[in-house]
Amino acid sequence: MEIKYNNGVVYLTPELASFVKVGDFLGVDLTGDISRLNESALDAPRLPHYDRVRLRRAFPFSLGDKYISVLDFEQNEIGLIEDISAFPEKQAQLIRNELERVYYSPRVTAIKSVKERLGYAFFAVDSDVGALEIPLRDVYRSLIRIGDDRLVIIDTDGNRYYIDSIKALDKTSQKKLELYV
Amino acid sequence: MEMLTRIPDKVLRYIKENKKLSPESVLIGMSCRGNMPYSPRVHLFADSHTLCLLEGVDSVSDNPEYDSSGFEQTHFEVFALEDIAELETEELMSAVRLSVTDKSGMQRLVCEAPNTFKEALMAFAGYVRLIKAGEFAGVEEDDKELRCSGCGRRYPDKNKVCPYCSNNKGVLKRLFPFFRKYVWQMLAILAMLVLTSALGVVTPYVSNSFYIDNVLEEGGKYYGQIMLVIGIMLSVRVADLVIVILNDIVTTRISANITYDLKKTIFESINRLSLGFFNSRRTGGLMTQIESDSSTLYNFFCGMVPDFAVAAAKIIAVSIVLFIMDPLLAFITLLTIPAYVLMVSHAFAKSRRMANIHYASVKALTARLGDVINGLRVVKAFAHERYESQSFHKLSHNKTRIYFEWSMYDVVVYPAISFILYLGTIAVWAIGGMSVFRGELSYGDLLSFVAYMGMVYSPLNFIINSIRRMSESVNAATRLFEIADAIPEVVESEKPVMLDDIRGNVEFKNVSFAYTKSKKTIDRVSFNIEAGKTLGIVGRTGSGKSTLVNLLIRLYDVSDGEILIDGVNVKNMSFEQLRRSVAIVSQETYLFTGTIFENIAYSMKNATYDEVVNAAIEAGAHDFIMKLPDGYETLIGFGNRDLSGGERQRLSIARALLKHPRILILDEATAAMDTATEQKIENAIDRLSGSCTTIMIAHRLSTLKNADKLVVIEDGKMHECGNHKELIEKEGIYHKLYTLQLEALRNIMSDGDEDDKNKKHRGPMMRGRRPQ
Description:
A: three-stranded antiparallel beta sheet; B: alpha/beta; PH-domain like; six-stranded mixed beta sheet; five-stranded mixed beta sheet; 20 strands; extended
């Protein structure tokens, strides 16, 4: 079995890894000769089985399904998935479900009102989790533009909210945003 | 039951009636929103034996204005505490996840909640662990979520001020103490304002009604005495001018003093605050923020407040005069005011929006320009000149277009508004003209009236604009007070222990520290160093090495355990003594704007030339300093000569050595130097040993090899402790790191040998051959 390996990073392929559900979490079994994966002595040695892994997207805004880092619970990288779709559909779905939970942030669909008070701004919005009020400490720095049309809002508690397309918002919402971005 | 977050009454009723959980038996509980769309609300309870999860649809939302009744259970689960081996919290992108591991090792998800509830959920997990261990002794006040009693919103920080409910008055009230010193000047300003307003009101009367009706018209009381009127007009004008100048002088002085006082307060707070405050905020932004907020306030006090008062006084005085002169005409004039205010406010808002968009485009353009100029080397190296020009051109074009639109708006709209005002004036001319014909109004009075009308409109403009600027100033003041009010985390002991002489024994006793509640950066570390000895701290990047030394000099305070110098807890020492006896050279060197001499002497203000030169020689800095044309008087720092990383580090070391510290900390202080220079510094440090305790942090283990003691830190925990020989024999982490570095070095050497051999080997063979 050919293992794609680059400077300590192992590319996880369906031949090498199979993702399983362990209890409520995503686990992974590494098959084959894993001692070959542990060449770099300083990294935590890889185990044949993990009950619970963490997933990180390398390109969270652009590539949802590609370049997914798989880490153990202590955040040591086990390997990198180049493309989820290379895995059998059932496993791919497990990975996607976990990613969806890890990265889920409410999508703002409309901005109802913005109230500025004492250096804070309160955005009353509609989102896919219902009506929300988003408190922002420093409004200009809490709104981060990704590319031309996307926006990430980070509130006082560190919650993230996404606006997938500013242009797709209604005109009133756009006008309310225009002042800040 | 103690609640970490508010639990709705109906849920409490529900668990009592349906789950037989009485609030008396439950020890702690909390409620939070689910993380995913349509996920139900989560309620957690724990009593002495169980952890209960109740999910259901209920009315509580983050929006306090939304409330309905009814609770419908969607899920209920009980986890027996005796079956739980561990509770874990995991931070997701925008949420936090609570899970339990049972005794068989199976992991179960309890719930996921948005970051809003992160602290509460982590605290909940912590308390459940305590309950399980039988050590629960109530919930700390700090862990309970606090909400504003007025609007029900959570307080955004520990200051317990609800920005939503508190009004501008509070902030303005806080500004008053800054004015108190200047009561007399303020009264003088007020008097002058009254005078200028009065003079302002008199002028149109004298130059119109009085001049035309009494001087120019036959039969007037002062008919023909033109010089008299001119005299009066001139004196009024001169008096007005003098008062305006005087007023400006006094206001400028007061405002400048007040903003100075304000800045001083803020700057003192900054120096007083601990590093933790700045880590939780963006420092770069902080400095510009303070500067721009202070100038916003300066402009507000200096330009706005007095002008606002004059404007308001003028409007009131003129309105009264208008009504006295002709109530009907005054009524027509005042009728135009609401329309005018409406139009101007709208135009201002739109114009401000366009100004913001323009500002953003300028910012994008300058950022790009700055990037290209600073990174010119990279741009050229990758031959991206054309690409950069094109992208600059695009941004520049965009900026020009936005500016044009903005200007066009201003060019068209403001004259249009003036035209509407003009219609009001025309109406007054028409109706007033008829009154003149009917003899109800003199021609001079009509002229005065029209002049007064103008005096109402122009201050109105100003007032509308200043309402917006006033809210900006209040925001600026709030941000400044936020800094002034922040409570330092590291506080000096009120009655510090003064040691006559510090010898330099250092001891860490069970030291723990966490930057955030969720993760310990340092976990129960203990070691000691005798005075005059050298300690090396070894560990990977991010393992907590620098944190250890930051704790020693109290940039942060330990959360558990204690650090002792000569047997005295550092918390009981005065900042002055602690920081005078400990010198630190860190990876990030900071040089102030000034000469090299001043930078080295920063640690000892009255250092002699001799001492400074000696320190520089010891730090291996003297050589390169002497190569600079201005020697020790070379200007460095912002906008002056750039020094290399290694040179900067050497200056920092000289600065530290100059003050003859009892404890010297070198935190990766030689990382940017070549081996020969590093060797020189090591020799200097060796000479110091005996008189000064040295703590060294370095990646290159060869640097630490000679240390009397080495501690190996990994993930905040101390794994190994001993000298080089002992640790090598132990064959643990240190051994692994050391052999790895040694191997790397051997590889380089053997490659070098091979190259040498090849050269020798190839040499004679190549000689005389022609390249093929």
